[in-house]
Amino acid sequence: MRIISGKYKGRKITAPKKLPVRPTTDMSKEALFNILNNHYNFSDLAVVDLFSGTGNIAYEFASRGSEQVTVVDTDLGCIKFIDQTSKSFDFGIDAIKSDVFKFLEKTAIKADIFFADPFYDMPLEDFEKIPDLVFTRELLLEDGMLIIEHSKHTDLSRLAHFSNARKYGGSVFSFFNY
Questions:
Q1: CATH number of residue 45's parent domain
Q2: Which of 22, 104, 155, 163 is the most buried (most CB within 10 A)?
Q3: Contact 65/92 with Cβ under 8 angstroms?
Q4: pLDDT band at 102; cut points 50, 70, 90
Q5: Which residues of 139-168 are buried (b: 16+ CB within 10 A; e: fewer)?
Q6: What pLDDT digit, counting tens, does each position of 149-168 carry?
C-alpha cells in the first residue's frame, strides 16, 4: 500500500503478512479521498478509523494534515504495527486495542469522520450496529460523515441516515450523515 497524497505522498508501507487484514485498495482509497477533498479541509478534521487493520486509511488522513486521528482494532498485531508506523512517520495517531462495538458504546470521542472497514463477511446485523451506535450516541460532529466500506453484496441503503453509496470494483463505500 502507498500514501496517495499529502506530506508523505508516494511513500510505501509494507504490512506484515500475518495480520488478519484486507487493506483498502489504492484505487478505492484514491476515489474516496477525491470525494472527501470536495467536502473537507483535512487539517481541521477529527477522524476515527474503525476496524483499522493496517492503518491504511488513518495514514492517508494524517499525511493530509489531520492531527486528531484515532484507530480502533481488536487485533494486537494490527495495533502494534500502526503504533510503529505512526512513530516512524511522526503522525501521532492514537491506536486503541478494543472491540469496535464496545468502543462505540463507551467512547466520549466525537469526530468529523468515522470510517469503518469491517470484514466483508461480517453479519448484516453487525453492519447495522455501526451507524446505529454512531448516531444514537451522537458521536458524529455537525456536518460529519460516517463511511462504511463493504462488499458489493451488502446493501446498507435502507438504514437510517444513509446518504449514498459509491462502488469501486468489488468494494462499496456507503455514506451516512445527519
A1: 3.40.50.150
A2: 104
A3: no
A4: very high
A5: bbeeebbbbbbbeeebebeebeebeebeeb
A6: 999 999 999 999 999 999 99
